[in-house]
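Justification of computing resources. Each target in the renewal requires a structure prediction run like the one illustrated here; the chain below, 195 residues long, is used simply to show the kind of job we budget for.
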Amino acid sequence: MMNEVTSQVILFAILIFVARVADVTLGTMRIAFISRGQRFIAPIIGFFEMLIWLLAIRQIITNLTNVAYYFSYAGGFAAGIFVGLYIEEKMAIGSRIIRVITKKDATDLIQSLSETGYGVTSIDAKGNEGPVHLIFSVIKRHDLPDYIRMIQKNNPKAFYSIEDVRFVSEGVFPARESFIGRSKLSLYRMFAKFR
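Resulting structure tokens:
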């Protein structure tokens, strides 16, 4: 009888942990979609987030005397934040603006970026230590590592800053595969690491 009770407690603790990971992961994703203006996806994610949360909290409330459920609930919350941020980072949804400031001649960098298909706006300006070149680009978030590699290759000492963009009306972007194809590839890479 004692073993049956113990195994039931362990099973419910695991289920609460998994449910909490799922609902917090969905919550993190929902917030990411909202911040990027994806107002149609966010409510759907929110529905499933709340449904899972209600199922998990029901187990806690019906078994308030069992401390194992509290720990699995809190542990699931912490793990859910980690998993949600990891998935959101791998999905790389949205756009970024990159500002590059360099003292060095930026002709090669501008040409390299343009040939790759990035939209580039450049301005000659004056900094504290003399003339500088400013380069502005709005890029898709998944293109960020490639763009940074090009900066480091052409102007390794250039200063650059990166900022999220909520909305982009038009722009010049390199030809890439669709969001669905990219997501499948990202998920494949993510799960391939665990093999």
